[in-house]
Design the sequence.
């Protein structure tokens, strides 16, 4: 594996291999070795973050490397330099790059021109690191996804749902996505996905019925905060006690955080399921360390 740009590009074997590695690294924390010794990894963040920045900086250091954080104000990208020029400069100086930004094509272009391992730490199109952490949590809590139904309640075509749909395609589990009609995946994407195990509905109760995992995310992604019309459309798509009454016994609730209590999830539900949700947050560290180790091996 040369890069981690999307879940779409991974095979089922690569996904499960990364999760196996993440489980091992989690057990071995503090004794995992130093595969990044002597390496410097750049972290280019044009979108702010808590979990992503902390987990990558800690992970790189625990694996023996040195993280170099670069905001858009620290480099010439913020002043109009083309991504390919920045990539060609950094590719001659650092050993890998982690990018959290808006356009998926920026990450693809950087990987192409830099020639160094590149990790998508979130774009508008995909959030592969988060999905790996979520899958790790499902495996730890439920023993795996085989024979399980996973429901996503919220925006049907966000970076999270896109990555979840590709994960379902690759791993074969049942995924039900509930979203308002104006926020469903477009026909061309669904034709490309071609996954009969992914179902769409405008009724959250239908998606939640018998689900072993209820997943949600903020209704307004970064950069969409002023879109009141969009937020209004999601009122019936809140994860609350009434919705969870439709889920399977022993279900878990996931949220990639930050959470807006009283909007996409109630305070009551978040606190009831906080142990799982913050285990999910911790698993970003272990899943991303697995990615770093895989890329260090080439």
Sequence:
């Amino acid at each position: 594996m040369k890069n981690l740009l999307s879940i779409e590009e991974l095979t089922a074997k690569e996904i499960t291999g990364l999760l196996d590695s993440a489980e091992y690294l989690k057990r071995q924390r503090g004794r995992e070795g130093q595969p990044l010794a002597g390496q410097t990894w750049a972290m280019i963040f044009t979108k702010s973050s808590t979990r992503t920045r902390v987990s990558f900086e800690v992970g790189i250091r625990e694996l023996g490397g040195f993280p170099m954080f670069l905001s858009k104000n620290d480099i010439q990208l913020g002043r109009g330099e083309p991504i390919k020029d920045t990539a060609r400069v950094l590719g001659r100086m650092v050993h890998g790059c982690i990018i959290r930004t808006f356009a998926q094509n920026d990450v693809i272009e950087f990987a192409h021109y830099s020639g160094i391992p590149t990790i998508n730490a979130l774009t508008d199109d995909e959030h592969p690191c988060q999905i790996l952490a979520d899958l790790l949590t499902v495996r730890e809590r439920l023993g795996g996804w085989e024979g399980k139904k996973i429901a996503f309640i919220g925006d049907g075509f966000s970076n999270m749902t896109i990555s979840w749909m590709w994960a379902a395609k690759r791993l074969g589990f049942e995924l039900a996505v509930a979203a308002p009609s104006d926020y469903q995946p477009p026909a061309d994407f669904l034709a490309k996905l071609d996954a009969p195990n992914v179902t769409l509905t405008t009724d959250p109760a239908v998606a939640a019925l018998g689900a072993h995992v209820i997943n949600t995310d903020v209704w307004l992604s970064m950069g969409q905060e002023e879109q009141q019309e969009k937020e209004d459309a999601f009122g019936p798509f809140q994860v609350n006690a009434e919705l969870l009454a439709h889920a399977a016994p022993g279900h878990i609730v996931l949220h990639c955080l930050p959470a807006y209590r009283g909007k996409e999830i109630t305070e009551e539900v978040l606190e009831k399921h906080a142990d799982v949700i913050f285990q999910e947050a911790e698993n970003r560290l272990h899943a991303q360390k697995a990615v770093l180790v895989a890329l260090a091996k080439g």
